[in-house]
Amino acid sequence: MPIRAIAFGRSDEFKHPDTIRAGVAEFISTFIFVFAGTGSGLALSKLTNDGPATPTGLMVAAIAHAFALFVAVSISANISGGHVNPAVTLGAFVGGNITILRGLVYILGQVLGSIVACLLLEFVTNGMFTFDEGVGFWNAFVFEIVMTFGLVYTVYATAIDPKRGNLATTAPIAIGFIVGANILVGGAFTGASINPALSIGRVLVSWNITLPNHLVFWTASLIGGAIVGFVYDFLFMNQTYNHLPTSA
User: Fold this and answer.
1) What are the DSSP calls for 153-222, one per residue?
2) Residues 6+ apart with CB under 8 A from 124
3) Which residues contact 49 (CB under 8 A, 6 or more apart)?
4) Are 128 and 45 in contact (CB under 8 A)?
5) How does DSSP assign 17-40, residue by residue?
């Protein structure tokens, strides 16, 4: 079981240079992702009347987030692994691929990166920043769990799994595309956050805190990521495969 691989980490890991560098990398990459992805919706809203609520707006949001995440993962992959999402970090921790102390540094960097990006968007757009919900609590809760499961599973398969082989070279593209696909399917219903850091940044800057609705975005994604950590590690990463001999 993956629980046996869970590690707390060394007491000095918080201040270790490698951990600090990784946390800064997560801050920068999450900042870029949130600023470009969320900013695209604000830009479309300025150019059109209620643009983000239209099919065209949904396409723009999906493409912008996919491209932004591709860049964000690429620029931090060789430093921190390119998580850019607390749900990915939690999934990696549950699967025993990161210590809890290093994971907390990652999540701190991700949340701060999102908050700074949203603050800058609030400033540069002159107060256009808003945040809305679309469906009921349980509908959105399940929706976000399923979408985050797809995202974190993609991260595991292409970036974390030691057997990934050449898939590692396409990991940023695959991860960016799954986010774009999730926005296409869930954007009109929940906003397709699938990233607690993104949601926290939006909420704190817009100060539109309506519990329990926001609990969907703060908890469902983490649950989806944790499920992948258990499932993928147990089914795929801890198995020994016996290959059948090929005929001569």
Assistant:
1) HHHIIIII-TT-GGGGGGHHHHHHHHHHHHHHHHTTTT-----HHHHHHHHHHHT---TTHHHIIIIIHH
2) none
3) none
4) yes
5) HHHHHHHHHHHHHHHHHHHHHHHH
Instruction: Using the structure block, give the residue that is written with the tokens 């609705």.
Output: 213
Residue-wise pLDDT for 1-49, tens only, equals 455 556 777 777 777 888 888 898 899 888 878 877 887 777 777 667 6
In the numeric block, the tokens 């898939």 are attached to 167
Query: pTM for this structure?
Result: 0.68
Measured between its terminal Cα atoms, the distance across the chain in Å is: 38
The one-letter amino acid code at 76 reads S
- Angstrom distance (rounded) from CA 103 to CA 72: 18
What burial class does residue 105 get, using C-beta atoms within 10 Å of its C-beta: 0-12 exposed, 13-18 middle, 19+ buried?
Answer: buried
